[in-house]
Specification:
- The protein is α/β, with parallel strands linked by helices.
- The protein is elongated.
- Helix 5 runs parallel beside helix 8 and helix 6 runs parallel beside helix 7.
- The longest helix has 40 residues.
- It contains 11 helices and 21 strands.
- The protein folds into 3 domains: 89 residues, 2-Layer Sandwich (Alpha-Beta Plaits), CATH 3.30.70.80; 300 residues, Rossmann fold; 44 residues.
Amino acid sequence: MNSEKIYPLFLKKLENQVKNQILENFNADDKSVKAEKFRIIISFKDISKRDEFILKNKNLVILKQFDLIPSISLNLTRDQIQTIQNNNLIKRIEEDQKLYLSMLHVIEDIGLNNYRRSKKPYLGKNIIIGIIDNGINQVYDSFKGVKINHYSLIEHNKKEKITHGTLMANIIVNQFQDENKNIIGIAPDAKIIDFDISNSKEQYFFSDILGVFDYIIQNNIKVDILLIPFTTLHPSDGKDSLSLCCNLLVDKGFIIVCPAGNFGPESYTIGSPSAAEKVFTIGSYTKDKKISYFSGRGPTLDERIKPDFCLPGSKIEIPLSEGVRVRLSGTSVSAAICAGLIALIKESNPKMSYPQIFTIIKKACITLGYQNISQGSGTILISDIFKTIKVKKGKDKEVETIKKEEKLVSYNHIMLKALGISIEYFIFFIILFYLIYYFDFILRWFIRIFGVI
């Protein structure tokens, strides 16, 4: 097969699949092999070439078409792909890859401990976070007073279904308070846009998200941060159409946050769009500060360091109503927390760009003690995150606090250190006691001998 226009990772998959089918069927010309269709994306140099291609190939069933990167999605057999790649209008052919939500499990619980968080100077006010997911169900008490706009091409009746999107939104804007009267949402005053791409088959592809991107641009929808809690099963080099579109949106001023995926712990397990150069890619760690076994590891297929940072993503507990709590794990949890943190930063200065925010977060990081392909720059010390931001004082003064380099220490280390200090004090007091005792003894002896009163 001529490989000039076929995305290398897709070409490799095609070749491997054919080899496997030959071994299974003992016949390269088997009808079932030839009849199998692949869901693909064909991209073009510009919209005019795309439209010309569609006009000249009316026999093809076009599933969707996109403008951000001029392209179409459709189903073709291997033979059709081989024939159509010779068309001069086509720029590239790649797989419309299947996407997976990056959450391992959700367990409903009753009466569990509150999910706590500390006070913060910003609450995400006037910052708009778009969540591309399987829909947000707003019936729960945790959303009381939260403004959520819903965009979906399909009418759904979710009733009280706890969707993945519902949980992602709850991490960010949950309105319940902990025992210290702190609102537990990371950015409780942020506005949420629900970009619902759910379907009856519960299958998601590149083309679903590309369609949302086009919808946002064509309708001039204001979004500050986009949370995309999906990733592919296979690793990426960040040059697929979804990753490239993410980079284009970042260039237009959007901030995009993605999970590192749940296909670790091996290296080279960063899929798309997490491998995109300009997105925030977030890994997960456990309550004892260990990288979650499932968290995707870098580097990307083109040897770039990912993930960028790590945040909690294991057994996080969230209340939805007085009687319903959920416990969830996965790197999408970590990504949602990061989206909330970025909303706080954006509130302090809404004009901050991706490079500026990335630098601020990196300065507020402390190592977890792992290689950078597992932890990126480490975890974000939330209490220090605003120490790296310049705060205006009066008309002409600026103050900037530089955070000192810190490292996380384990609980056992702290206990041992405390024990060591306690022993040192104990020895000190014993020595002091004996010094006082002997001084008193010598003083009494001196008085008796010399008769000094």
